[in-house]
Amino acid sequence: MKHGISILLAASMLAFTAFQNVSYAQEPEFYLIEDDQLDTIDAAVLTDSKRVRRSLGELKASRQAIRTMASPLGEGDPIKWVQSLPGVASGADGSSAIFVRGGNMGNNLFTLDGVPVYGFSHILGLTTIIPMDAIESVTLAKGGFEGSQGNFTSSHLKVVTRDPSSTRTKVSAGLNTFLASASLEGPILPKLTYSLSARVSPLAWEYKAARGLLKDAMGGISDLSAGVGDLYGKIRWEMTPTNLLTASIMGSEDNYAFISPDGASDAMGWDNRIAQIAYHNESRMSVTDASLYWNSYGTYQHQEKTYHGVLNDMSLKSDLDELCFRVDQHRYTRGKLQLDYGVRFRYAALAPGQIRFRVDDRVRLASAYIQGTYTIPDKLELRGFIRGNQYSVKEKKTERVDPEIGLSGKWEVNRHLAFEATLDHTVQYYHTMEGLPVGWSLDMMVPSIGIVKPETAQQANLGVIGNFGHSTVSVSAFAKKMENMIYYKYAQTLFSGALAEWEDNVDIGRGDSYGAEFLYEFVMGDIYARAAYTLSKTTREGFTTVMEGAPFHARFDRRHILNASASWKGLSLAVTAQSGHWENGAAQLCQMHVPGQEWTMEYYSGVNNYHMPTVFRMDVGYEMHFKTGKVSHEVNLGVCNLTNHFNPFMLYFDASTETWKEMALLPILPNFSWRVQF
Question: Among 43, 62, 80, 274, which residue's Cα sits nearest to residue 666?
């Protein structure tokens, strides 16, 4: 405890150290194109705005670049953009899961204006919960992390929202394959503006309208009902030219109920509630950001299934409530050095278990960091940070202090060639429980307590970037080592009261991943093309209940991943080809135990004994913009999975035949989106 307080006091003392003669350094901007200007902007400018912007350790895209991606919804979203980048393996085809450089799905951090979003999946994984109208830019960091964010080990997906219009009121509405949306923004007073976006999914109505067709396409699922929607709101008050106050809210709901092919009644859902108030101050000496946010996330799964003539009622639930206060200060010099430092104080309650049982683990996480950046414009950029974390769970008598560190650098040899290197040691205190590899996912968030230590990762990356006329290419190699990864080892206690003592039923191991990444872009006139390829290998080992500790393939360890796309004058083509992944299971039969009976189920006869087929998908689309009077229109038409390739979404256990079966949720699917703005 004393060491943690010392860290925070040291960081606080740094707040009184100042560099003189400071000027505020602006971040490079994108082409900030308003939707009602799209039909008047030069085609070459629109095409160039689709570029992936590269900065130290990061890849960045604008809202317009993301929206024009081919997608089952008729428009792209942040996760679909991320899944098209090198170093990222997607989960099942059509899902929003990402596995970055060998990490687990729960090792990624997704933030909205700095606030973690723990349940970003929407419409069964087809998109994210953030309305596109609210987004300004999206940035992915796979290494070379900054010190301001923590509690993750794989990647940071940063979403920054737009400022509302201060000149006039804007109204827009949209409709795509699975969502209807509306948004409103404008001034309230000369210095006070607002924005509001809402979306709702007609998924259940669409299913009922085309039940005969969709029944086969959805693997035999019937009686689907769904309640899906989201809401985002923001108020921006420019108190003075150097003082800004914003308040924002975000909410989302996903609730589904259906009958599976074996007659089981399934229900599942998740929700997010976020509220934040933030203060921003700019002075000649520095820039200060302070905020307070509340974050609530919940997920549930419920199933009524008949096994051997007995009806069983099974459930899982996981809740997280978090309150955080944070302060960051950025100091700039006329010279070459920039200093950033700040503190975070989090208080959270995590409650995994069954629907009828709730046991809270109350977490306190305080952290402080200091980061320095040395820059010679157009030549050299060096960055390093150190971060100290103090973590405690009083009920479980858990208390610890952990350091994190990051070093990164970029050397621009000339305007055509640059080298980049990153080195990171990161720590994560919230774990997403992984257990059954198929069918039901545990999908529970648990804290580090007792023998369940924080997850850690050490990774290094070395890359080269070339810029030659119309082409930009980057090639890099990475190596990553992960420790204290957890696995829920007893499937037979999955739905029993023993889950309340989850920490006694986990196995702890480690993993490693290494590979090479390639990203190529070509821009000339109206032509834009991009290709991303990843060659990698990811293993897990040290789990005593799996292969007696021997190495085995990680889930979604895809050796080859290729994503390519091209567009010309509104026409676009995208191709995805990924190696099939292994489905892992305990090297023995599983003794199932559910209320009322016990039996032995042939879960798997060995580890890595089932290899999912190669994923292949081809999407085509057409985008156009036009005006009718004062109304701007944006229309996207396309076909997802043009070849109707069968890409399994999941395996499920059919109780009637007691066999595992594949299910695909993304058949050939015409899609569209239509958006109007007044």
Answer: 80
Q: Grade residue 139 by pLDDT with cuts at 50, 70 and 90.
A: very high
Instruction: Tell me the C-alpha to C-alpha distance, in Å, between residue 115 and each of 8, 326, 352.
Output: 21, 10, 22
pLDDT digits (tens, 9 = 90+) for 458-501: 999 999 999 998 999 999 999 999 999 988 776 545 555 555 57
Cβ neighbourhood burial of 600 (10 Å; 0-12, 13-18, 19+): exposed
* Token pair listed for 398: 């858990």
Backbone φ and ψ for 549, nearest 5 degrees, come out as 90, -5
Whole-number average pLDDT of the chain: 83
Q: Quick check: 397 pLDDT over 60?
A: yes
What percent of the chain is modeled with pLDDT above 90?
A: 50
Pair of tokens at residue 549: 């500790």
Q: What is the DSSP letter of 577?
A: E
Alpha-helical segments (H) within 15-56:
43-48
Task: Give the span between the Cα atoms of 41 and 36, in whole angstroms.
Answer: 10
CA dihedral 665, 202, 158, 231 (to 10 degrees): -160
Query: 164: closest CA among 197, 137, 194, 188?
Result: 194
Q: What is the largest CA-CA distance in the chain?
A: 79
Instruction: For 32, list phi and psi in degrees, rounded to 5.
Output: -90, 90
The sign one gets for the Cα dihedral 87, 387, 363, 447 is: positive
What number of residues does the chain have?
678
What's the Cα-to-Cα distance from 107 to each of 167, 187, 454, 541, rounded to whole Å?
A: 41, 39, 11, 18
pLDDT for the residue 544:
84
Report pLDDT digits (tens) over 375-394. 998 899 999 999 999 999 98
pLDDT at 94 over 60: yes
- Give the pLDDT of residue 490: 62
Pairwise CA distance, residues 159 & 136, whole Å: 8
Asked if residue 259 lies in contact with residue 265, where contact means CB atoms within 8 angstroms, the answer is: yes
Encoded tokens for 299: 């997920």
Q: pLDDT, tens digit, for every residue of 578-593?
A: 998 876 654 444 444 4
pLDDT beyond 70 at 218: no
CB neighbour list of residue 46: distance below 8 Å, 6 or more residues apart? 31, 33, 38, 64
Question: pLDDT band at 32, cuts 50/70/90?
Answer: low
Cβ atoms of 580 and 614 within 8 Å: the answer is: yes
Cα separation, 419 vs 465, whole angstroms: 6
When comparing pLDDT for 591 and 530, which is higher? 530
Q: Would you state the structure tokens that stand for residue 319, as one six-digit string?
A: 């809740």
Distances (CA, A) of 598 to 32, 269, 308, 383, 658: 61, 28, 10, 57, 15
Amino acid 281: pLDDT: 96
Structure token digits, residue 538: 């990811």
The three-state secondary structure class of 191 is coil
Going from the C-alpha of 605 to that of each of 588, 610, 659, the distances in angstroms are 5, 10, 13
Number of C-beta neighbours around residue 156 at 10 A: 24
Give the span between the Cα atoms of 284 and 186, in whole angstroms: 30
